[in-house]
């Protein structure tokens, strides 16, 4: 039996101006076939105008266990949001 | 329900199936938007954490902790669902070359292509649980995993393609719509996708039967004959009655399943009666009648002994379906090897250029 063909993650951009969104995964021996299969599998009904395929092995994911510690610093830096700042009355275009 | 395309999600319950799919999709987004609790605290009991996520109607994702039995039951269910889509291409594929018009043939081709796609979405969802597709395919080929009993029945006439769409895909969609709210995220998302496409299948089947039943007497008789043959096998698709269903209770507690086999079967019967009336075809059950007290139809149960025989491999086409699948797999081996060798050669060339 031959080696199982590798897994690819598929990202599709629905229209110009939107971002690529992960839509699923598939098996294919190489990138070109992955792209063709993704076309048939995920854009049969005009779901997209652009496809990215990425070998699943090339993706590193954060772990749910470290979720809190990993994303916590965002919570105590409220000054990163524009709403943190007070704008005096009467200032326009700010 | 057929023809009820634009039901608003709020009045969708019991009505438009597509509406229910939309509602499930909205619920999925809302659950994602709700502040989700993070991973378990270091000293937290993992079982309690898991139960908490399920209680809150949030989704379990691939890297979350889950009980081993939950993982196993999902692998079994999703894989068998995927196998069903793949084997299900055969009974309909049987009529591609003999479809009565070019339009019907093109539609049937698109439908069978969808089934392949559904199989692939589902295998991908199963793979997030830590098995490989090749393993699952091997389990199917070895006869150690099952596929839906319905695909062991033969397609004897063109009308059967219509009956499969209306009844078989109809039963599938009634079964699958609640799975759009299943607690395992990848499965729920795959089901949303599948259900939307499945409702195209159900409608194309209904249209075939409608055209036949409003055609010549011979066409109408052919349509009636196929409904007569597919009605009970379709009812059996919902599985054994609640008392005999081995996995139901635990699956409901884990929110993999939302309704029992019998509840879904009843829902299916209730929606088919009116659809059959519009077709002008008769459902082959002399005891089918409205029960005012229950606000549902009373009906004759399918033959569950027959269902068990079919599941055990003794249905009309079990051997043929598996032989066909095994042959395609074996005879395709050299093509898979060629593709792998070509990919390896190209990768090597690329490396050389880069070096």
UniProtKB/TrEMBL annotation, chain A:
- Classification via InterPro entries: PaaB (IPR009359), PaaB_sf (IPR038693)
Top-level lineage group: Bacteria
State the Gene3D superfamilies in the record: Phenylacetic acid degradation B (3.10.20.520)
**Protein name (database record):** Ring-1,2-phenylacetyl-CoA epoxidase subunit PaaB
The species is Micromonospora rhizosphaerae
UniProtKB/TrEMBL annotation, chain B:
Tell me the Pfam families matching this sequence.
PaaA_PaaC (PF05138)
Per the record, which residues fall in region Disordered? 1-20
What terms describe the molecular function in GO for this protein?
Answer: phenylacetyl-CoA 1,2-epoxidase activity
Q: Highest taxon of the source?
A: Bacteria
GO terms for cellular component: cytosol
Q: What is the annotated signal peptide range for this record?
A: none
Query: Which InterPro entries does this chain map to?
Result: Aromatic_CoA_ox/epox, Ferritin-like, Ferritin-like_SF, PaaA, PaaA_PaaC
Name the Gene Ontology biological process terms: phenylacetate catabolic process
Protein's UniProt name = Ring-1,2-phenylacetyl-CoA epoxidase subunit PaaA
Species this chain originates from: Micromonospora rhizosphaerae
């Amino acid at each position: 039996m031959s080696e199982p063909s590798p897994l690819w993650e598929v990202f599709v951009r629905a229209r110009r101006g939107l971002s690529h969104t992960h839509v699923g995964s598939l098996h294919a021996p190489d990138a070109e076939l992955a792209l063709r299969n993704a076309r048939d599998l995920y854009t049969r009904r005009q779901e997209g105008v652009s496809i990215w395929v990425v070998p699943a092995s090339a993706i590193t994911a954060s772990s749910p266990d470290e979720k809190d510690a990993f994303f916590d610093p965002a919570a105590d830096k409220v000054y990163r949001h524009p709403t943190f700042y007070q704008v005096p009355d009467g200032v326009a275009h700010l | 329900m057929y023809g009820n395309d634009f039901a608003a999600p709020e009045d969708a319950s019991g009505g438009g199936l597509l509406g229910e799919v939309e509602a499930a999709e909205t619920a999925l987004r809302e659950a994602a938007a709700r502040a989700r609790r993070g991973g378990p605290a270091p000293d937290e009991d993992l079982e309690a954490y898991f139960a908490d996520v399920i209680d809150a109607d949030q989704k379990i994702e691939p890297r979350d902790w889950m009980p081993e039995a939950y993982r196993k039951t999902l692998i079994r269910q999703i894989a068998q669902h995927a196998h069903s889509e793949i084997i299900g291409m055969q009974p309909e594929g049987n009529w591609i070359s003999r479809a009565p018009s070019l339009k019907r043939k093109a539609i049937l081709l698109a439908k069978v292509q969808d089934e392949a796609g559904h199989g692939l979405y589902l295998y991908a969802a199963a793979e997030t649980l830590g098995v490989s597709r090749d393993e699952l395919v091997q389990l199917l080929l070895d006869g150690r995993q099952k596929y839906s009993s319905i695909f062991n029945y033969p397609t004897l006439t063109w009308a059967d393609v219509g009956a499969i769409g209306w009844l078989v895909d109809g039963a599938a969609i009634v079964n699958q719509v609640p799975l759009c709210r299943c607690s395992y995220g990848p499965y729920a998302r795959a089901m949303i996708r599948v259900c939307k496409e499945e409702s195209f299948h159900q409608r194309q089947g209904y249209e075939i039967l409608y055209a036949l039943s409003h055609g010549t007497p011979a066409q109408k008789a052919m349509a009636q004959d196929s409904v007569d043959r597919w009605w009970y096998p379709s009812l059996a698709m919902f599985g054994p009655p609640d008392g005999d269903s081995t996995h139901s209770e635990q699956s409901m507690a884990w929110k993999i399943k939302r309704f029992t086999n019998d509840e879904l079967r009843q829902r299916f019967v209730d929606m088919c009666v009116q659809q059959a009336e519009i077709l002008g075809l008769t459902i082959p059950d002399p005891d089918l009648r409205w029960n005012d007290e229950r606000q549902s139809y009373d009906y004759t149960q399918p033959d569950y002994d027959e269902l068990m025989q079919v599941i055990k491999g003794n249905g009309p086409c079990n051997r043929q379906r598996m032989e066909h699948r095994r042959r395609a797999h074996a005879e395709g081996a050299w093509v898979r090897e060629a593709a792998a060798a070509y990919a390896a050669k190209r990768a090597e060339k690329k490396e050389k250029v880069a070096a």
